[in-house]
Amino acid sequence: MKALFLSAFVLVFAATTCQVEASEDGVNLVNLGNVEGKSYFAGTSQMNWMIARDLCRNSGMELATITTQAQVDFLKSKYNSTTFSGYYWIGARDSQSFRALSWDSTDTEIETLFGIKYRHFAAKYQICAAYYSGTDETVIDAYECTMNDVTGLICET
Ligand SMILES: *[C@@H]1O[C@H](CO)[C@@H](O)[C@H](O)[C@H]1NC(C)=O
User: Where is the C-type lectin domain positioned along the sequence (predicted)?
Assistant: First the structure.
């Protein structure tokens, strides 16, 4: 119960001041508001997806998920040409938890065979999702996770 009161207080505080300082790299997270019991925070900074995820976690949050119509409608309603506009990393990436190899000819995954070692040197995830907040279009785009051109992130708690 104490934890609930504390988080309620933090949310009220965030809503009142409208800005919460991220603990590292100086990213300001702006409280977009609450929908279906969770709060979305948006921040602006050029970063790749891994760094975006770390920034959310450093603030005790996770990259945002958008899983219901109400959440889509909510984010759409928050479009603002100065404060919430453009591309924001969100918490989706390749559906494989770890990139796997398939034989090109048969499209079947390489199985572990006796006497041969499998080593993975590539990035764990290759494509990651960014939410686009715009005037007429609302889009989820897939980019290379390592791309630095995405200028924002959305965390949730
Ligand atoms: C966008 O955000 C700014 C800063 O908070 C605010 O002054 C302005 O009214 C907002 N615009 C719209 C259309 O809500």
Answer: 35-134
Q: What spacing in Å lies between the alpha carbon of 117 and ligand 1's midpoint?
A: 57
The pLDDT, as a whole number, for residue 151 is 83
Q: Give the three-class secondary structure for 31.
A: strand
Q: How far is the CA of 85 from the centre of ligand 1 (A)?
A: 11
Over residues 148-157, the pLDDT tens digits come to 888 899 999 9
pTM for the structure as a whole = 0.74
What residues make up the domain containing 91? 2-156
Q: Residue 96: which CATH number?
A: 3.10.100.10
Among 66, 7, 18, 68, smallest CA distance to 41 is for 18
User: Does ligand 1 have an atom closer than 6 angstroms to the CB of 96?
Assistant: no
Determine if ligand 1 sits within 6 Å of the CB of residue 68. no
Q: Considering its fold, how many domains does the chain have in total? A: 1
- Whether ligand 1 lies within 6 angstroms of the CB of 19 is answered as no
By the 8 A CB rule, do 33 and 15 touch? yes
In whole angstroms, give the CA distance from residue 67 to residue 40: 13
